[in-house]
Design brief:
Layout: H1 24-39, E1 43-44, E2 47-49, E3 52-54, E4 59-64, E5 67-76, H2 80-97, H3 102-118, H4 120-131, H5 135-159, E6 163-164, E7 171-179, E8 182-186, H6 194-205, E9 209-212, H7 219-232, E10 239-241, H8 246-255, E11 259-265, H9 268-279, E12 290-294, E13 299-303, H10 309-321, E14 331-337, H11 341-353, H12 373-389, E15 391-394, E16 409-412, H13 419-422, E17 429-435, H14 438-446, E18 453-457, H15 461-470, E19 475-478, E20 514-522
Parallel strand pairs: 1-5, 8-9, 8-11, 9-10, 11-12, 13-14, 13-18, 14-17, 16-17, 18-19
Antiparallel strand pairs: 2-3, 4-5, 6-7, 7-20, 15-16
The structure holds nicotinamide-adenine-dinucleotide.
Length: 524
């Protein structure tokens, strides 16, 4: 087998810069994009199965959580049979897509990144409307979408071709990476562009074909991403797009005999269902399905008595309440040394009181809504539980407005074993826990079933070193907030019930989408 010739020359990866909305031209561009996207509200989007546009009688409506009466888009409701047809179509397309040279696939993914960059404001506007992200959070989602395409494209160039192995006398030997087959790509709603595009780009650039089924809460953003991939040159047969429920369409994708792997990001509960379903062999299935599962968190920030308290207050505020706490990396536990507990809580409450809550398309609102009525009810239920388990010091209810607005809520004096300290709430609710000393803080931090992100604030180098050794999380941050992972700089993924630690945006990631073949030929 000849070494794949890698001619594409690319600059070193750099992160897409964030937009500075303080500049009048950027503010205007975002306002124009919001107006343009609002003009398309109510549009109907097809599914794409085997290159065909497919419509169903039953529809799925995506609404704006800031103004729930606004319909963002009308979507199809895939049946289990249609999900199976999509897997079959992707299976048939695999024979040709896997033979497209890696360099060509990379060019297509880079083209997708360029198109997204050109339409960044529009994509951000749609994110802002569909899932209630503030301008800044929506822009970060769009930037990460571009980063994933740029990063995985470069990674594929590194991984393609023959790789040297230990030379063996009398043999020509090498190792090459092959794609797997059909990937069932199942993203969550909270990074509707970045995660959907990231798992899809990783799949396609490695030569796999895809059935993408976005979250019921965010089909419009995913549809926009899919349209861009098609425009960039991804064959429609190689990227099938279906919408519908996880229980019906998602489940059928996972269980199909021709599905080779599942790339899932979402809750622990669904991740475990998928893990179990993927392990069962379907009639006719001739491989063991791979399951790349990125799941929830109960992320903690440790605030030591030797911390810069103001910096810790700012970091915890942003990590706990940015995007209404709806990030897997969100800080939902502050574990604070008893020596500075009262001072920290006092400062934190004053800081969080300044957060403005309201429609996310209005740029002065730091916090938008939570994603749905169901999410809001769940969060309010947790607040009731937490208020009994600890002391409610701020918030505790709905915030004013038509949308699904929840007040930023702080519950102090929480027992580390209580539900509010153990279960993922996925909303703007922070539990503050008292620790006797640093070792006790680490013990509490590690004492959940999760292990995604964590942060430590301390000026003491020995304590920092101890945290590096003992804080058991996939992403540890020292003297900075625990959210805001950057592609390339902070490969992302967690331990234990936070998932399979696939490290998105890192150099290990594409290997989950490839299988290595070793070749040795006797010579001489
Ligand atoms: P979710 O688990 O409810 O849904 C995720 C996806 O799974 C959706 O597309 C849904 O339709 C689908 N699904 C649901 N049931 C299914 C089934 N039985 N079979 C197949 N697919 C099914 O999660 P969500 O509410 O969309 O997202 C929030 C969760 O995602 C949080 O727990 C958050 O921590 C987690 N998350 C994790 C990461 C990470 O990198 N670890 C990143 C973002 C979000």
């Amino acid at each position: 087998m000849a070494t794949a010739e890698v001619k594409l020359s690319v600059a070193e990866f750099v992160n897409e810069p964030f937009v500075d909305f303080a500049r009048p031209e950027n503010k205007k561009a975002m306002e124009d994009a919001l107006a343009k996207v609002a003009g398309e509200f109510g549009r109907e989007y097809p599914m794409y199965i085997g290159g065909e546009r497919v419509f169903t009688t039953e529809k799925l409506y995506s609404t704006n959580p800031s103004r729930p009466s606004q319909v963002i888009g009308v979507f199809q409701m895939a049946s289990a049979e249609q999900a199976a047809q999509a897997v079959q179509a992707a299976h048939e397309a695999f024979a040709s897509w896997k033979r497209v040279p890696a360099e060509k696939r990379v060019e297509i993914i880079f083209r997708a990144a360029r198109i997204i960059r050109e339409r960044k404001f529009e994509l951000s506007a749609l994110i802002c409307y569909e899932v209630g992200k503030s301008w800044i959070e929506a822009d970060a989602d769009s930037a990460e979408t571009i980063d994933f395409c740029e990063f995985y494209g470069r990674e594929m160039l590194r991984l393609t071709g023959e790789h040297p192995v230990t030379p063996q006398k009398g043999e020509k030997n090498y190792l090459v990476y092959l794609p797997l087959g059909v990937g069932a790509v199942i993203p969550p709603w909270n990074f509707p562009a970045a995660i959907a595009a990231g798992m899809t780009a990783a799949s396609l650039v490695t030569g796999n074909t895809v059935v993408l089924k976005p979250s019921e809460e965010a089909p419009a953003v995913a549809a926009k991403v899919v349209e861009i991939f098609y425009e960039a040159g991804v064959p429609r047969e190689a990227l099938n797009f279906i919408t519908g429920t996880g229980e019906v369409a998602g489940d059928a994708m996972v269980r199909h005999a021709k599905t080779r792997y599942i790339a899932f990001t979402g809750s622990k509960e669904v991740g475990l269902i998928i893990s179990e379903a993927a392990a069962k062999r379907a009639p006719g299935q001739i491989w063991i399905k791979r399951a790349v599962l990125e799941m929830g968190g109960k992320d903690a920030t440790i605030v030591d008595e030797e911390a810069d308290l103001d910096s810790a207050v700012e970091g915890v505020t942003q990590a706990a309440f940015g995007y209404s706490g709806q990030k897997c990396s969100a800080c939902s536990r502050a574990i604070v040394s008893e020596k500075v507990f009262d001072a920290f809580v006092g400062k934190l409450v004053e800081r969080v009181k300044k957060i403005s809550v309201g429609p996310s398309d209005e740029p002065h609102n730091y916090m938008g809504p939570v994603v749905s009525a169901t999410a809001m009810e769940g969060i309010l239920g947790y607040i009731d539980v937490g208020a009994k388990e600890g002391k409610l010091v701020l918030g505790g209810g709905r915030a004013a407005g038509e949308g699904y607005f929840v007040e930023p809520t702080i519950i102090a004096d929480v027992d580390p074993k209580s539900r509010i300290a153990q279960e993922e709430v996925f909303g703007p609710v922070l539990a503050v826990i008292k620790a006797r000393d640093f070792e006790h803080a680490l013990e509490i931090a590690n004492d959940t079933e999760f292990g995604l992100t964590g942060a430590v604030y301390s000026r003491n180098a020995e304590k920092i070193a101890r945290a590096e050794e003992a804080f058991f999380v996939g992403n540890l941050y020292l003297n900075r907030k625990c959210t805001g992972a950057m592609v390339g700089a902070h490969p992302f993924g967690g331990f234990n019930m936070s998932g399979t630690d696939s490290k998105t945006g890192g150099k290990d990631y594409l290997l989950h989408f490839l299988q290595a073949k070793s070749v040795a030929e006797k010579v001489g």
